[in-house]
Amino acid sequence: MNTPSRVVVRRISALFVSLLVSAGGFAQASSSIQTPSQFLGIEVGADRTLADYRQIGSYFKHLAASSRRIEIENLGPTTLGNDMIMAIISSEENLKNKERYREIAHKLADPRGRSQSEIDQLAREGKAIVLVTCDIHASEIGSTQMAMEWAYALVAGQDAETKRRLENVILLLVPSLNPDGQIMEVEWYRKYLGTIYEGGRMPWLYHHYVGHDNNRDWYMLTQKETKAMNRAAFLNWFPQVWLDEHQMGSTGPRIFVPPFSSPVSPSLHPLLWRPIDQIGTSMAWRLEEQRKSGVIYGYSYDAYWPGGTMNTAWWKNCFGLLTEVASVRLATPVEVEPGELSGGSKGLIEYRQQTNFPNPWPGGVWRLRDIMDYERIASDALLETCSNYRESILRDVAIMAMDAVKSGDPYEYYKISLEQRDPPTAARLAHLIRENGAEVLFSPKTRTYYIPTAQPYAKFLSEVLGVQRYPMVKMVAGQNILPPYDVTAWSLPLMMGVQVELEKLSAEAERGLRPLQEDDWPTGIVENATASVFAVSHETNTVTRLINDLLRKKRNVSVAREAFQDGARSFPAGTVLIESVGDPAVLAKSYSIELHGLSRNPGVSASKLRDVRVALYKPWQASMDEGWTRWVLEQYNFNYKNIDNNNVKGAALGTQFDVVLLPDVSKDVIVDGKRKPEEGQSRYFQDLPPEYSGGIGKEGSKNLKEFVEKGGTLVALGSACDFVIDEFNIPVVNTLARARSDEFNCPGSILRVHIDPGHPVTYGMPQEAAAFVNERIAFRTSVPGPELTRRVLASYPDDAEEILLSGWILGAERLERRAAAVALTYGKGKLVLFGFRVQHRAQTEGTYRMLFNALQWAGMEEPR
Ligand SMILES: [Zn+2]
């Protein structure tokens, strides 16, 4: 809708921009510097026009070749091998001395041992290092186009204000945190331009493995892009301010700027919010000044969860900001009817004027250019404010870091011993903490990791090494709490199944510690190296990679189905037996495991393992869980292939695969290729191009059943269990299938489960484990006839009080005594249902084992 008043606003803002440009005196800029539109030969920001990441990269190279105000740092290759670049933009003088400013930023980030006057001096001398990241969510693409125009204005601008800002600030500008996805989106967009699919979503993830969850990876650091940006931020540059630019839905406010909404994590330093709110308010101010309506703060996005880019940064004493601008259909304008505008989110229940939203956008046409203009004004306000408050910002980082140091005990450490169930995973946790930028020490004598509690990132440590209790944020007294933005638990020791203890060390013990080094891993142990059969514990995750590597080389690997004794040593059921291993010492070291040479054949029943052929189902409603699962399978060298709807419908399933793995995808998506709308929501569903529409249908369901009846194994994760329960005739029900969210809600918490350790799927698991739960699933089994067997693998405690380990849950009593995982035999085949999330976002390493075992079980003969 293009109301007359809207047209007037457009004209005024166009006039305003042109005034700014002439006042800025771009005419004086070096004539060799071209604008993005001149350089690329397209009208950047025009409707239906997008520059792809390769063009953007070439434009930034052009700027770097034409100006001494910009340098390009290559952060490294992305997952698909593109270069991820970061532009460093500042005054020529600052760039000459950038090493000095980087050193100052580092010293202020870790001010231990410095006097107040030294800190003050560093704050006076230093420059504000401001990181701006764009487009981590590739379809939120406006910022990639804006970044070019912004960089041009900063590099070419000859006005005093631009120069002043660049004297005070070193801007680190990342035009896309997801270059692979940016390229995918633009190629998809161009392909369907002018068709009925124009601007629609892609049938695959916009990050090769993790899609939208690339912004859920910032403490776990699994993906290349996350690792590269984390390294640049927390090991190299130590920015004091980090703005991450996103887009949101089309029918709410036009832009979110900080302040954030509740809840606020109590472990965060309160000083964080003052500069963040100041900068956010400056953004809102400058937007309003330029007649941009629809600015909101205190909305939807809370300050509680550490999984995102700038969110994690809060726990590392960095002022993290977020902007979210209303979306268009990639580069195709949208027209929003006034009645379609809606609130419905924390901070704006109804779409109307209120204090945090004083000037609602009235509706009308919204274009890519609008997104870019809003983002540009907010980005400029960021530079302006950081330039104005440079010294305070630098000093405040040191204040927060010092307070964090003081919050710990100088003699107290988080201790991670290698004397535990899964030493390589324990070592991984220590290295992960180091990779996050925290200080980790190592005792070469006791081979133990020690993490000081008194250090600048102390709050980050207590957050990810402790447990969470989600605060009671309510809209109205007496009502249910507001649902959290994302998950509510991120306790790494629980999720990874690693024992972490607090320990005070004597001064003498402290002298035996040194900084953690790259190769401080468990070295592996070999006992009785001349034996021909070796026993390996099933308790470590790395043994899975060992098994798969050996099977790929056609070596003999089996699993003992009963406990056995060898000399004085006893081995539990599930112990892995390997033959002819070459040099056992090399093997032990490269997998960080213990190999026990056996004096004789164990003489118990053992199942030979096969190199199982895994089919991982991939729906065209792109599933992040599919991507994460794929990533995990690759890390452990499983022999897998993706299958799509046509493959499931095809005849060859049983001849090509031993096991079909259904990721956490709802039944409706599997069967019909569409999500079922929630009550009261529109049934409208925009189709994908025909080759990507539909699901496996009745035909596919029938085929899957036949696959299992004839000897195949079907493993279902999370909500895919409902598909198996409904389509297969099994004595299992999901008692929460129809529960409302006000009856049971567990949006991502860590719960206690009891494990039955005697089954091939639970080999190597402890009797009690921490299970990650984010779906409404609780199984009740019943007694079957003789044609099948069922076995509860994991179950929730009898007492609701004992269920929650970390996070938040409503209706825990509905889980009492219910099963969390079930294995069945069915015809000649097998079914495994995991109601909890065994491999959630590649973070729950403590329960990976059950997924791996389920896949290996597919290759085992079962006595019938
Ligand atoms: Zn986003």
Please write out the topology.
Elements: H1 4-24, H2 36-40, H3 53-66, E1 70-77, E2 83-89, H4 92-96, H5 98-109, H6 116-125, E3 128-134, H7 142-156, H8 160-168, E4 169-174, H9 179-192, H10 224-237, E5 241-248, E6 255-256, E7 261-264, H11 273-289, E8 295-296, E9 302-303, H12 309-314, E10 319-326, E11 334-336, E12 364-366, H13 368-388, H14 390-407, E13 412-417, H15 423-435, E14 441-443, E15 448-452, H16 458-465, H17 492-496, E16 501-504, H18 507-511, E17 514-515, E18 525-527, E19 533-536, H19 542-552, E20 557-560, E21 564-566, E22 569-571, E23 576-579, H20 584-590, E24 594-597, E25 606-608, E26 613-617, H21 624-635, E27 639-643, H22 645-649, H23 653-656, E28 659-662, H24 667-672, H25 697-709, E29 713-717, H26 720-727, E30 732-734, E31 749-755, E32 768-773, E33 779-781, E34 788-795, E35 804-806, E36 819-826, E37 829-834, H27 845-857
Parallel strand pairs: 3-4, 3-5, 5-10, 6-8, 7-9, 18-24, 26-27, 26-28, 28-29, 29-37
Antiparallel strand pairs: 1-2, 2-4, 6-10, 11-12, 13-15, 13-16, 14-15, 14-17, 19-23, 19-24, 20-23, 20-25, 21-22, 30-33, 31-32, 31-34, 31-35, 34-36, 36-37
Bound molecules: zinc ion.
